[in-house]
Inverse folding.
C-alpha cells in the first residue's frame, strides 16, 4: 500500500495542476455562460468521485456484513469520509454555478434536494459511528446505513428524467434516434472534462489508500492501548 501511495501522490498532484492550467488557459470560453462555465471542470468530476466513493462504501459495507472482516469496514469508513467531502464540494460548486445560471444559489430542485439528502445521510453515518461505543456494533450499523445511503445515488442520477427540474440532462453523451451515443458537447470542452475526471479519480484513490493506512495504524494503536490496560 505504501508503494502505491508513493506512486499516486506525485501523479495526482501533477495531473491536477496540469488540468488546472489546461482549464484556465487552454479551454475556450463558453458562448452562453461565459467564464463561469469553467466550474463544470470541478463540479462534474466531483460528482464522479462522490458516486465512486459511495459505491465503494456500498460494496465494502456488504462485504463487511457478510464476512465481518474489520478491513472491509476500514475501507468503507475511509471512502465515506472522502465521499462526504466531495459531496459537499458538489453542493458548493453547484450553488456557485447556479447563481449566474438560475439567478439564485439554491432552489429546491429534485437533483439538488436528493444530493443534499445524500450528504445528510452520510453525516448521520458518521454521527452513528461516533455515538455507538462498541466497535463492531458501530461498524455493523454504519454498514447498513452506508448501503441505504448509496441507494439515493440512482435517484439523484435519474431525477432529471423523473421530475421537472432546472438541471439539464447528462451533458457528456446523448443517444441518437439510431441508438448511437455521441458527445453532447464540443470535443474542445469534452476532452479536458474527461481528463480532469481521470485526474480526480487518481486523486481519490490516493486519498483512499492514505486514509486506509491511517485507519489501520489507528486500529493497531487502539489494540496496543487495550492490551496494555488489560495487562
Amino acid at each position: 500500500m505504501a508503494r502505491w501511495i508513493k506512486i499516486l501522490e506525485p501523479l495526482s498532484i501533477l495531473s491536477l495542476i496540469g488540468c488546472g492550467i489546461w482549464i484556465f488557459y487552454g479551454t475556450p470560453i463558453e458562448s452562453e455562460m461565459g467564464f463561469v462555465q469553467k466550474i463544470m471542470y470541478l463540479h462534474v468530476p466531483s460528482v464522479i468521485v462522490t458516486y465512486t466513493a459511495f459505491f465503494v462504501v456500498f460494496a465494502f459495507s456488504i462485504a463487511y456484513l457478510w464476512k465481518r472482516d474489520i478491513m472491509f469496514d476500514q475501507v468503507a469508513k475511509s471512502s465515506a469520509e472522502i465521499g462526504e467531502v466531495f459531496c459537499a464540494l458538489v453542493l458548493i460548486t453547484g450553488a456557485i454555478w447556479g447563481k449566474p445560471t438560475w439567478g439564485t444559489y439554491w432552489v429546491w430542485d429534485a437533483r439538488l434536494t436528493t444530493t443534499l439528502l445524500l450528504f445528510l445521510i452520510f453525516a448521520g453515518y458518521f454521527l452513528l459511528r461516533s455515538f455507538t461505543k462498541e466497535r463492531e456494533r458501530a461498524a455493523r450499523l454504519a454498514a447498513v446505513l452506508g448501503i441505504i445511503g448509496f441507494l439515493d445515488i440512482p435517484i439523484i442520477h435519474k431525477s432529471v428524467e423523473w421530475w421537472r427540474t432546472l438541471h439539464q440532462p447528462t451533458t457528456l453523451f446523448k443517444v441518437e434516434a439510431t441508438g448511437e451515443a455521441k458527445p453532447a458537447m464540443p470535443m474542445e470542452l469534452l476532452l479536458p472534462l474527461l481528463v480532469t475526471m481521470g485526474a480526480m479519480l487518481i486523486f481519490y484513490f490516493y486519498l483512499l489508500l492514505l486514509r486506509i493506512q491511517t485507519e489501520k495504524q489507528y486500529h493497531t494503536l487502539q489494540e496496543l492501548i487495550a492490551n496494555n490496560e488489560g495487562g
In short: The mean pLDDT is 88. The CA atoms of residues 29 and 35 lie 6 Å apart.
